[in-house]
Amino acid sequence: MAQIPMGKVIAYWVERGPNKSLITQEGTTVSRAEFDCRTNRLARYFRELGVKRNGIVTIALPNSIAFLECAFAAWKIGATPMPVSPKLPYTELEAILDLANPQIVVGIDPDEHRKWQCLPAEFQVDTDFSVDPLPEAIANYWKVITSGGSTGRPKLIVDHLPSVIDPETHYLGQCIDGVILNPGPLYHNAPFSVITHGMFRGNHIVNMARFDADEALQLIDEYKVQWVTMVPTMMSRIWKLPETRRIAFDLSSLEGVLHLASPCPQWLKQEWIDWLGAERIFELYGGTERQGRTWITGAEWLEHKGSVGRIQPDARIMVLNDSGQICQPGEIGEIFFLPETGVGSTYHYVGAEAKQASGGWESLGDIGWLDEDEYLYLADRRTDMIISGGANIYPAEIEAALDQHNEVVSSAAIGLPDDDLGQRVHAIIQVKRESFDQIDESNMREFLAQRLAKYKIPRSLEFVLETVRDDAGKVRRSKLREERMTG
After folding, report:
1. In this structure, is residue 368 part of a structural domain?
2. Domain with 433 in it: what CATH number?
3. Could you say which of 5, 197, 243, 360 would form a disulfide bridge with 171 (CB–CB 3.0 to 4.6 Å)?
4. What is the pLDDT of residues 354-376, one digit of tens each?
């Protein structure tokens, strides 16, 4: 069918089943018809507050039904939603808002940011606003996503797709009119995109306030979830549940587990394939910028272990060495993409410039290689690579080894200055609270010695209780490095 405005898509599904569940969170369920009425009212409220077509609506709310209502209310008046973490410190949020210049910020106390029009998290909409459908409106850009990237300086990634959608087309293999679980924070691009696209296609979204391994399996069982998108950190936490607990749930409804956002250790992916079957495991690699993406099924991965897949038809890929020459199969270099629609066609930055090679090819800063069958393998981000004693060491490889340890929750490897080696490898290891007093550094080194070459084993180990990665599996190594160099 033809594309329709994103603001009209819930009404499309209301016509096909008004009382069907649209969102469930923490025991509360909202139907399609209820959600459509509530967002009509909220859209009118936003409009009265001055939000106009193509204006930015910043959403600084935790995972909630209200978060998704704000996004759809924005689309109903042709505005563009911009999700941000509700936990951002004042100065970081201020820098982002200076770049975005939003017409309204939802989830912030008006007294905290007087420069912008703010609504507190618990705001109420006057019931005098009509719930009737609004006139059709389309935003030039359907979303704006924020990113600190490797530099730590904020930038905005403005997606060039307009706010229109075909609700009957499949998206990343997801079901239509089915059930999808969201375990990730909605202020990150992948959960925001995957879940809103799931709603565009009439799916019942089971939304988690925050990720919990046991609860995720329980929800899949209870709601007969068909599709879930995870990051490897979530997969690791599920896998490390006691086996009796992990196999206690019925996961037979699950048709697909898509993982993305950070490298997945080979051992972990193999365990999930052995557990659920290769036909249910998928992986995507690509940036919010949409210059290009790769895709791989579980069956393909078994033939190309460690790969993140082949480039999809809407883009091209190449890997360049330090001399700017195309790498031979197996040769590590920097990864560049070019969309078939041309440079600059899929997005633009606010607050940053893209790294380009000749011809408009763009890099996300990742390094890796292609095999002879043109399957891509990732090494790490160039900015995170550690050069120690002249050897290139990739943090992701060290972290994959650490994360195999049953007492490790998450980890990050960084390079710190060293007079002799140039850089030394330092590992920050989040361990289980109940194991913190019993963790032994010598035993951890023995564990790593069975998995890493000697020069890759961290020179220093730091055990912590606080999280190293966020709920989206992201780690900002530059920030960790700066804290340890200045602390």
Report:
1. yes
2. 3.30.300.30
3. 197
4. 877 778 899 988 889 999 999 99
Cα separation, 99 vs 351, whole angstroms: 7
Residue 308 belongs to some domain of the structure: yes
Residues of the chain short of pLDDT 70, as ranges, are: 1, 148-152, 380-383, 389-391, 471-472, 487
**Do both 272 and 315 map to the same domain?**
yes
Residue type, position 14, single letter: V
- Please state, in angstroms and rounded to a whole number, the distance separating the CA atoms of residues 322 and 333: 7
- DSSP of 36-56, one letter per residue? HHHHHHHHHHHHHTT--TT-E
**Residue 253 resides in a domain:** no
Do 200 and 60 share a structural domain?
yes
Domain match, 364 and 472 both: no
Strands (E), 173-277: 179-182, 204-207, 227-230, 256-259
Single-letter amino acid, residue 355: K
* 221-255: pLDDT as tens digits: 999 999 999 988 889 889 989 999 999 999 999 99
> Distance between CA 411 and CA 462 in Å, rounded?
10
155 and 267 belong to one structural domain: no
Distance of CA 386 to the CA centre of its chain: 25
Dump strand ranges (E) for 321-456: 333-339, 347-350, 355-356, 362-370, 376-381, 386-388, 391-393, 408-418, 422-431
Asked whether the whole model's pTM tops 0.90, one would answer no
Query: 373 lies in which domain range?
Result: 263-382
Task: For tokens 């992990």, name the residue.
Answer: 246
Question: What element of type H or E holds 76?
Answer: helix 65-76
